[in-house]
Amino acid sequence: MTESNTAVLSISELNRKTRLAIEKNLLSCWIRGEVSNLTKAASGHWYFSIKDEMASARCVMFKTRNQFVEWGIREGEELELRAQASFYEPRGEFQLVVDAMRKTGKGNLFEAFLQLKTRLQAEGLFDSIAKKTIPPLPKQIGIVTSKTAAALSDVLFVLKNRWPVAEVIIYPCLVQGGEAATQIAEQIVFANKHQDTELLLLVRGGGSLEDLWAFNEEKVARAIAASRLPIISGIGHETDFTITDFVADLRASTPTAAAQSGTPNRLEILLDIQQTQIGMRKAMQTNIASKWQRLDTLQQRLRHPKEQLNQQRRRLAQITQRLRNEMQNSVIRKLTHFGHVYRLLKRQSPNTAQYFQRIGQLQHRLGHSANYKLELSRLRLLGLTTTIASLNPQDVLRRGYSITHTRKGDVVRNKNQTLPGEILTITVAEGQLNACVLEE
User: Fold this and answer.
1) Confidence band, pLDDT 50/70/90 cuts, at residue 105
2) Residues 408 and 334 occupy one common structural domain
3) Is residue 240 scored above 80 in pLDDT?
4) I want to staple 237 with a disulfide (CB 3.0 to 4.6 A). Which of 97, 206, 222, 231 is the partner?
5) Residue 352 in this model has a pLDDT that exceeds 70
6) Are residues 409 and 371 in the same domain?
7) How many domains would you assign to the chain?
8) Containing domain of residue 59, as a range?
9) What is the 3-state secondary structure (H, E, C) of the chain?
């Protein structure tokens, strides 16, 4: 036996050639089988096997592709996979790289679903920026569904229990069959045209892909995208996804969940109101107590006008007495001075007659000047007394005037100091009145 001149390959080289040969000759195709050995890795990738009665193959579906699978893949589930045959070189294992999957028996419809979904997504119909805000407290809620649908009864029951104050308007249409998509789109357009509602619920119970196909029609998707009213979709069960769910402003897992998503819980609202009332009552009581405390402080500081007038009168009497005393002391000082001068002159033996005459003149002038100053002081005192009397608030009040104070104790001089509903205190000649501002 002669030794061959054929080159010896390493395992890595052999595996690489095998991978290239498989990927070159086995193009992407659809494969049907049962899922087994399913593992969902922390990285987000799915690893599993697909098998039938005779054989099995290892599969991998990377995170970038499995995120588009709209249902939860389960062990033992029969699926149709679109995969590319490959070869994992490090372990020398044949494997299928899956880029799409669908439930068995729904090939054509599912393919149409994926194509429409891809096209509408590229147009931006699924973008979150296009989603309208769901009103938190809707007054009118429209329901687009069949009048005979079991889902309608469930939705009405939930709305009645959660938010009975809302008016419910039903927009009847078929939800299955050839005419269903047209009727659904027409009712959405009709609801937008009449603007009788604030929110639309588009609901239908569960069913097969064929049963739910009306909600995968492009005309329905376009009507939802063009709607000015926010729309919540509740189609089928939690694992069912339709084109409607992607275009709608909010997707609910079931019709019942759609009713719950579109309405607040009245019990929670009532509880919030009660808690708010309690908080407002406590805040009001605290505020009132603070105001009363401030009022007591101001009342202690505030003196009655009559008391102020008496104080001014006492001060005027003091000033008058001081003025009289000063004038008397001035006269006494001058008389004392003249007496001293007289005695000095007498000791010097001057011409007394002349001096006596001069003294008499000075005494006369002094008396006249003292009387004049006294009269001026009396007139000034009289003027001050008249001025003080004219400024007496009590006399002003007796003439029919009043003084208006705010709760803070400020005197109201301008209407802009008050607000409608504010309580004012009005002081009149005989007591006080409380008044309420009706309008400016």
Assistant:
1) low
2) no
3) no
4) 206
5) no
6) no
7) 4
8) 12-105
9) CCCCCCCCCCHHHHHHHHHHHHHHHCCCEEEEEEEEEEEECCCCCEEEEEECCCCEEEEEECHHHHCCCCCCCCCCCEEEEEEEEEEECCCCEEEEEEEEEEECCCHHHHHHHHHHHHHHHHHCCCCHHHCCCCCCCCCEEEEEECCCCHHHHHHHHHHHHHCCCCEEEEEECCCCCCCHHHHHHHHHHHHHHHCCCCEEEEEECCCCCCCCHHHHCHHHHHHHHHCCCCEEEEECCCCCCCHHHHHCCEEECCHHHHHHHCCCCHHHHHHHHHHHHHHHHHHHHHHHHHHHHHHHHHHHHCCCHHHHHHHHHHHHHHHHHHHHHHHHHHHHHHHHHHHHHHHHHHHCCCCHHHHHHHHHHHHHHHHHHHHHHHHHHHHHHHHHHHHHHHCCHHHHHHCCCCEEECCCCCECCCHHHCCCCCEEEEEECCEEEEEECCCC
